[in-house]
């Protein structure tokens, strides 16, 4: 983003409420140093600034760009990823899905769609689903794991999204949007939770009852 030095002015937009890209916690971000001002490129331009995470364990710095007309953040560094609880997730599945989240946060939507598809492949491999391709493996998964029919249908739709993204011959690969990948990530999170995390949550609940 190119900003003319002649239009830059010092200002203060105060604290900013957002989620920390370092520790993942929500918070009201404060100034890192008292004499570091925000910069504005004018009433129709952008505001640039830096804040610090209020979490005393983290204290990570966040660089932001804000639209001065709407006073909302539209870009940050590091990028803020969609939150994801990785407890109880096998390493290969966790690292693959986290790469999909990283791609999405950096606005690399085609790459994110491909990694979502790869996440499904890793889930099928981990659960021993068989087949010559991912479509057959997802069909096999229906007999191995207990999932709502809607999530199993969603897995097949996610397979198609990632497949379109991976092939340049597809007319759809260049049209994958933020909202399309965002809902795909939400569905993948639900599939992961249902397969790997609900059982652990139930075990924790039963342990609490036994110890109470």
Question: Which terms would index this structure?
Answer:
globular, 44% helix, Four Helix Bundle (Hemerythrin (Met), subunit A), alpha+beta, 16% strand, 212 residues
Describe this protein's structure.
The chain is α+β, with helices and mostly antiparallel strands and 212 residues long. 44% of the residues lie in helices and 16% in strands. The protein has five helices and seven strands, in the order βββββββααααα. The protein has helices at 91-105, 109-127, 134-141, 149-166, 178-211; strands spanning 9-11, 16-19, 26-29, 38-40, 46-52, 61-67, 72-77. α3 packs antiparallel against α4 (149-166) and α4 (149-166) runs antiparallel to α5 (178-211). The radius of gyration is 21 Å and the shape is globular. The chain starts with 8 loop residues before the first strand and ends with a helix. The model has no long low-confidence stretch (mean pLDDT 83).
């Amino acid at each position: 983003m190119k900003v003319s030095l002649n239009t830059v002015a010092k200002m203060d937009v105060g604290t900013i409420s957002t989620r920390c890209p370092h520790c993942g916690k929500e918070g009201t971000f404060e100034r890192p140093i008292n004499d570091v001002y925000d910069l504005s490129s004018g009433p129709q331009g952008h505001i640039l600034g830096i804040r610090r995470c209020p979490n005393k364990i983290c204290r990570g710095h966040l660089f932001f760009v804000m639209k001065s007309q709407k006073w909302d953040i539209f870009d940050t560094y590091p990028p803020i990823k969609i939150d994801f609880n990785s407890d109880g997730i096998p390493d290969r599945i966790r690292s693959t899905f986290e790469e999909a989240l990283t791609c999405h946060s950096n606005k690399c939507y085609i790459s994110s769609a491909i990694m979502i598809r790869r996440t499904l492949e890793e889930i099928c491999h981990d659960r021993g689903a068989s087949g010559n391709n991912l479509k057959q493996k997802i069909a096999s998964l229906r007999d191995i794991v207990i999932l709502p029919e809607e999530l199993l249908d969603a897995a097949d739709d996610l397979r198609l999204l990632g497949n379109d993204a991976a092939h340049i011959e597809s007319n759809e690969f260049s049209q994958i949007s933020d909202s399309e990948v965002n809902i795909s990530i939400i569905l993948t999170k639900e599939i992961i939770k249902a397969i790997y995390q609900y059982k652990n949550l139930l075990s924790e609940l039963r342990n609490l009852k036994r110890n109470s």
